[in-house]
Design goal:
globular, 10 strands, 5-stranded mixed beta sheet, mainly beta, OB fold (Dihydrolipoamide Acetyltransferase, E2P)
Length: about 150
């Protein structure tokens, strides 16, 4: 069964989101900070009269610090449990068709990537990691944040 994939770059790595999970791709220019929010929550933004919780995917994956304080950022907009989120990515490339179903990953990728990995999918550009958007939104566990 083939599916459409949105190809993005996060922390310098090309990965795929299931396109069925993506409502739109936007450019965000304004972020409102949220005091006491989890570190991977970059802030809030508005899109067509909707409030979006903005997720810093680099921090969600524990790939280091990123600066979301100014400038225009590309983001994939998703809805999860009735709430709208914008997932900040380095860049958005294209929508392509998967050539295979996801298969298990047989290599260590790091805790953040392993937490959000749905498997590897074959594409015309080679294999890509299929990423679970709900895992990105949830961010690192409370134990990982405390460490």
């Amino acid at each position: 069964m083939s599916q459409l994939l949105l190809i993005v770059s996060i922390g310098g790595s090309r990965v795929a989101f299931p396109s069925a999970a993506i409502e739109s791709v936007v450019e965000l220019d304004t972020l409102i900070p949220v005091p006491r929010a989890a570190p991977h929550v970059a802030g809030l933004s508005a899109l067509r009269s909707r409030v979006l919780t903005v997720i810093d995917t680099v921090r969600s994956l524990d790939l280091g610090d990123s600066d979301c304080s100014d400038g225009i950022r590309e983001a994939a907009v998703v809805e999860l449990d009735g709430h709208h989120y914008a997932l900040i990515v380095d860049s958005v490339e294209d929508v392509i068709e998967a050539k295979s179903d996801p298969v298990p990953i047989r290599a260590a990728m790091g805790e953040g990537w392993e937490r959000v990995a749905l498997g590897m999918v074959e594409t015309e550009d080679g294999p890509l990691l299929l990423v679970d958007v709900a895992g990105l939104i949830a961010g690192p566990s409370a134990e990982a944040r405390a460490a």
